[in-house]
Specification:
Elements: H1 3-8, H2 11-17, E1 23-24, H3 28-36, E2 42-47, H4 52-65, E3 73-78, H5 83-93, E4 101-106, E5 109-115
Length: about 130
Amino acid sequence: MGILDKVFGKKEAKEKQAKIDWIPLTSIEQLNSIIEKSEKTALLFKHSTRCGISASVLRKFETKNEGLREQLDFYYLDLLNHRDISAAMAEKFNVVHQSPQAIVVKNGTAVANESHYDIIGIDLENYS
């Protein structure tokens, strides 16, 4: 371990501190299933893998909400690979596409929708 690792800590250790068990959202059929079975609250996180803001929001969101892993289902949409699913989400939930964006789904409807750094302010405990 180098001197900088001792002072600042290793990067891997910091990354392992806060994690959510994300379920990849990869098809419109899966989205329809989430809507149909949403007695359990679902969080749909649209993430652009090329965007620094999106990466920052994702890390902060995970840190804030890792204790809610059992109460909610957390879905992760790779926006660059699944733009069609993002478009379907905008239509089904009547929301404007944003990136990053988080949509909270309960009983088949969107009960919260935020984008960019406002995502961090969503109080998921209110929806679990």
